[in-house]
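Practice problem 4.
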């Protein structure tokens, strides 16, 4: 009887274990506040593949996991500059293009710009792209600076002007690879410069405005700006536009706007890629191909208010997305957008020290 019972228990355990291991799954690691969760549910319903979805709030967090190996993820979404460095480190596997049947939907304008990070777009597919600019509380800025709208980086990088905003709250992105190029560009230098003197000039400029910065952040400025807790931030276009709409929906008296300054701004690309050691690479391709559908990509952009690299989706975008020049800039603004390449290890060490000094204010 004992032997029979033991055999039954073991058999049941084996059956449960086999069923669990047979469950189809795809493990996704993406930026926070960056997808309509209905998309995940609809993918699961259509394919039977369970999505385990985790989020991060900085490229550095993602890169640490990827370079350590055995991240456990099947699809990750690094920004182009980090992607390029990670490709060189052998972090990703080449995509099987035969499994990406929706690639005809892609927008050549974006694919061509991504090519500098991922030659031939062999390792990645664009998820979203956008700009890094200035988000602000319209009324607070008008009250303190006497201007109706922001159109220049001098509001951020002129210490005299930023000092007038200290009381209402200034947040800067905790992202040296975005703030340092912005400072260089404002100074009239190459935003992608590695020159020692140029980087020193950027450091001096950032230190000059440091006393007026309340906080360096990754994503919490969305709610802080919408609630009226701060009046100025440097942030990502879609995040600030989400903040604008949250404030409007709350009808709380806060009006948020976003500026791509006349001096130009960083254009960045967030790319879907598959780690070399992904346990569910086939499911990863199915997930990416699903996201590449025009209706799915349109749903994603309509939710997060970011532009995407899917040309076919544009006919399905809401008018307040496709028609908003802050999301899809006009050709003149596009010409003023710059891109940057990843830093080499020596320069990266300089950047890390520089940024640590800026954040500490000493």
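Answer key:
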């Amino acid at each position: 009887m004992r032997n029979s019972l033991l055999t039954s228990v073991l058999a049941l355990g084996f059956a449960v274990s086999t069923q669990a291991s047979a469950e189809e799954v795809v493990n996704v690691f993406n930026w926070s506040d960056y997808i309509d969760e209905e998309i995940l549910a609809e993918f699961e319903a259509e394919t039977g593949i369970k999505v385990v979805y985790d989020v991060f709030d900085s490229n550095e967090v993602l890169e640490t996991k990827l370079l350590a190996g055995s991240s456990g993820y099947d699809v990750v979404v690094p920004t182009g500059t980090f992607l390029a460095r990670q490709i060189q480190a052998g972090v990703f596997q080449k995509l099987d293009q035969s499994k990406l049947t929706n690639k005809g939907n892609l927008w050549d304008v974006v694919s061509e710009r991504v090519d500098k990070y991922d030659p031939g777009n062999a390792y990645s597919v664009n998820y979203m792209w956008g700009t890094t600019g200035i988000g602000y509380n319209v009324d607070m800025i008008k009250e303190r600076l006497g201007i109706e709208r922001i159109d220049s980086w001098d509001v951020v990088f002129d210490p005299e002007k930023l000092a007038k905003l200290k009381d209402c709250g200034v947040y800067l992105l905790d992202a040296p690879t975005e703030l340092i190029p912005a400072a260089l560009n404002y100074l009239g230098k190459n935003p992608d410069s590695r020159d020692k003197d140029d980087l020193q000039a950027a450091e001096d400029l950032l230190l000059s405005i440091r006393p007026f910065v309340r906080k360096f952040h990754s994503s919490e400025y969305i709610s802080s700006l919408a609630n009226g807790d701060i009046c100025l931030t440097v942030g990502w276009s879609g995040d600030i536009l989400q903040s604008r709409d949250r404030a409007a929906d709350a009808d709380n008296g806060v009006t948020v706007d976003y500026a791509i300054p006349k001096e130009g701004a960083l254009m960045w690309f967030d790319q879907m890629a598959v780690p070399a050691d992904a346990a569910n690479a086939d499911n990863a391709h199915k997930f990416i191909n699903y996201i590449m559908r025009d209706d799915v990509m349109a749903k994603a952009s309509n939710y997060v208010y970011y532009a995407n690299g899917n040309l076919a989706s544009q006919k399905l975008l809401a008018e307040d997305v496709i028609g908003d020049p802050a999301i899809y800039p006009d050709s003149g603004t596009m010409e003023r957008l710059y891109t940057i390449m990843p830093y080499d290890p020596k320069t990266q060490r300089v950047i890390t020290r520089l940024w640590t000094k800026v954040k500490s204010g000493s």
